[in-house]
Specification:
Chain lengths: 108, 120
């Protein structure tokens, strides 16, 4: 089955740029989506289809996808960006949705 | 305003059954695919099942295939998950989520979740 690999944690100072990676075999050929989840809350979609933003999501959130790695980039990080971030793809060969293991973003 | 309200969770014995419901409002339910996603305590997100807008296509995670059944009633704007042969590792918060702008994934609205605890 298809596996997505994320770093367990990323730390960044306020105002700096956070980059969260999502690794998978030839992930560049798939459409990648990203979610933010804060403690006790449901996930929120922050980037879909590699790099598009849903309405209401700040421009500070952006995504890219190429080769074996997709990346969520959060510019000018704020304290409110703390939480867990998950990448997601649809694996057509298994007809399964797959989530990465999640990355905890800490704002120092 | 789009709303998804999950219900039906609770404590159930191993081997037992439970039916989860998700009541949708604020959008044309019959036009959207739907999913169930779960999260075990302290763990990450795990996709459980997908159903197409008309209900003709369904997909399941390997961990629940043959035990869980997803269904929908577009006339009642409702999504369901019938769970049977429950095991301790099915313990999780279960979320219903609306399919987004892509055919699969990119769920753009989520319910608040309902907790299922499988224990004797």
């Amino acid at each position: 089955s298809y596996v997505l690999s994320q770093p367990p944690s990323v730390s960044v100072a306020p105002g700096q740029t956070a980059r969260i990676s999502c690794g998978g075999s030839d992930i560049g050929s798939k459409s990648v989506h990203w979610y933010q989840q804060k403690p006790g809350q449901a996930p929120v979609l922050v980037v879909y289809d590699d790099s598009d933003r849903p309405s209401g999501i700040p421009e500070r959130f952006s995504g890219s996808n190429s080769g074996n790695t997709a990346t969520l980039t959060i510019s000018r990080v704020e304290a409110g960006d703390e939480g867990d971030y998950y990448c997601q793809v649809w694996d057509s060969s298994s007809e399964h949705q797959v989530f990465g293991g999640g990355t905890k973003l800490t704002v120092l | 305003e789009v709303q998804l309200v999950d219900s039906g969770g609770g404590l159930v014995n191993p081997g037992g059954s439970l039916r989860l419901s998700c009541a949708a409002s604020g959008f044309t339910f019959s036009r959207y695919s739907m999913n169930w996603v779960r999260q075990a305590p302290g763990k990450g997100l795990e996709w459980v099942s997908f159903i197409s807008s008309g209900g003709s296509y369904t997909y399941y995670a390997d961990s629940v295939k043959g035990r869980f059944t997803i269904s929908r009633d577009n006339a009642k704007n409702s999504l369901y998950l019938q769970m049977s042969s429950l095991r301790a590792d099915d313990t999780a918060v279960y979320y219903c989520a609306r399919g987004g702008k892509t055919i699969f994934g990119s769920e753009d609205y989520w319910g608040q979740g309902t907790l299922v605890t499988v224990s004797s």
